[in-house]
Each structure stands twice: as C-alpha cells, then as structure tokens.
UniProtKB/TrEMBL annotation:
<dbReference type="GO" id="GO:0043190">
    <property type="term" value="C:ATP-binding cassette (ABC) transporter complex"/>
</dbReference>
<dbReference type="InterPro" id="IPR007210">
    <property type="entry name" value="ABC_Gly_betaine_transp_sub-bd"/>
</dbReference>
<protein>
    <submittedName>
        <fullName>Osmoprotectant transport system substrate-binding protein</fullName>
    </submittedName>
</protein>
<dbReference type="Pfam" id="PF04069">
    <property type="entry name" value="OpuAC"/>
</dbReference>
<feature type="domain" description="ABC-type glycine betaine transport system substrate-binding">
    <location>
        <begin position="36"/>
        <end position="299"/>
    </location>
</feature>
<dbReference type="GO" id="GO:0022857">
    <property type="term" value="F:transmembrane transporter activity"/>
</dbReference>
Amino acid sequence: MRARRASCAVVAAVLAGVVGCTGGTPQRAAPPSDGTIRFVAYDFSENQVLVEVYAEAVRRTGLPVTVDRAGATREVVEPALEQGVVDVVIDYLGTVTQFALRQEVRGRPPEEVRTELEQALGPRGVTVLDPAPAEDQNGFAVSSTFAGEHHVGRLSELAPLAPDLVFGGPPECPDRPLCLPGLEEVYGIRFKEVRSMPSREATVEALQVGDIDVGLLETTDARRFSAPIILLIDDLGLQPHENVVPLVRTAVLDRWGDRLRRALDETSARLTAQEVVALNRAVDIDDLTPQEAAKQWWERQ
C-alpha cells in the first residue's frame, strides 16, 4: 500500500517526456543544468523520511542534492526514473519487482528477487543498489481484545470469521494484489464490509474502539508498538520480501562514481527494521518533519 497522490511537478515532467516519445520509446530527459542529484519520495511518511536519510548521506559527501517532497504514486515515479525526470528512488524490493515484472514474487528469496529486478531495470537505464536489512511489509492488525476473544494469531485463522468482520484499509487496498485480492486468493478471506481509512493513525484508532475488526498497518509502523494491537502472522506467505532498496539512474552513477554509490550503500547497511521503526516514531508520534528526523538519525550515527 504505497503512495497515492501524485506530485504535480513529477507528473508534469513525466507527461512532457511522454509527449516527446517517438516510436513508443521515451526520449531520455537531459540531466538538470545545475547537475543536482534528484531524489523523489512516495506519498507516505516512512518513504519520505527514508528519502531524507539517503539524501542527507549523499549531501554529507559534498554532492549536490534536491528532494521532491510532494509525493507521487509508483505509476508516476517509476516512469519518471526511467525517463530521467528523477535520479534516485528509495523503494521496496518485492513491490517494485512485482510492478516491474508484472508477476508475483512472493515466497522467493530476496537475492533472487533482486537479480530479476536488476535484469528488468538494467536495460531501462536504472541500477539496483544493495538492499538494506530493513523490510517493511504490509501487515494485518487486530486489537489485543479481538485476538483474545477469537483466539487468533495467524491470518489463516481469520478465514472462518471474515464473513462477519469489518476491514479498514487505504482506498487502493481493493485493487492491490498484496492487500484484499491477495487475502482472498491466498487465504480465502472475504470480509463482510470494507471501509476506506484516511490514514494509518485513523486505522489504529478504529481498531481500538471497535469500528473495524481488521486493519492494514505496515510492519514498521511505530504506532502499533504503543497501542493494544497485534499483527497477525502471515502464515501462508502472502507478502514478498520488502527490503528497502535504492534505485538510481545508471547515467547518474556513471557521472558521480563511487562517492554516490558508497554513500547510498553505506546507508542501506545501517538500516535495520528497528532503525526504520525509530525513524517512523520520530515523524508519526514525536511530530518531527522527515528532514528533522533524518538529521537526528545521522547525528546518532
């Protein structure tokens, strides 16, 4: 359940690139005249703070960096990266590979998934760097009270209960294969009612007061550690490995060399799931901006 809204700046640039297509092949955009390395974020807070963390690492090497913080959908960002509208995207291994290959990758080791992603994106002018140890998968949560009353701890145990349950998730959930369609296909789960939730914060609140029975929360969402809710175990393996992974235009790597690659790879090496949870807590609970959270994180490093 990644980004929803589209950044006007990125959308306009992508549309301009599409207009310039000939014979169905996009014309690669020229590098910006000021030579900056252009990062773009998806439209959810975790990705925004991760982009700031990676951008700060590059900035600390003395390389020029800009960050598009408006946010955009994957359907906009991925073409923008391939067309040279943006230079660096911080993505999630399973989701982006499934998007690029148009096929499922669940149940496969991350090394194999990364190889397939490299083979798909390499000819398109995009390099896949080292994934981080940190993963952020879709998770399905219930309140501790619900879990105790119904004796559930695994997703498969929801199947017989689901016809009487209310599910709450992002508006795109009914269309995304790793959300409701995946629950139906892999687990046979069909809920009585599906409600669109405006935010993860609203999902947590609705679970606690009983407005919904099951809600979508990412596994690194810091709010789930400070509320009486639990994530159900994905015992049939619906979710693929979702290691945080930088995608970079190959031409930009060629231009800036090891300084850029090393800064990004060393950042990935530091990012564990616990570190991502801490970054999310700083933004979603402590009310820091993504930029502030990223700078504090680097100061601790």
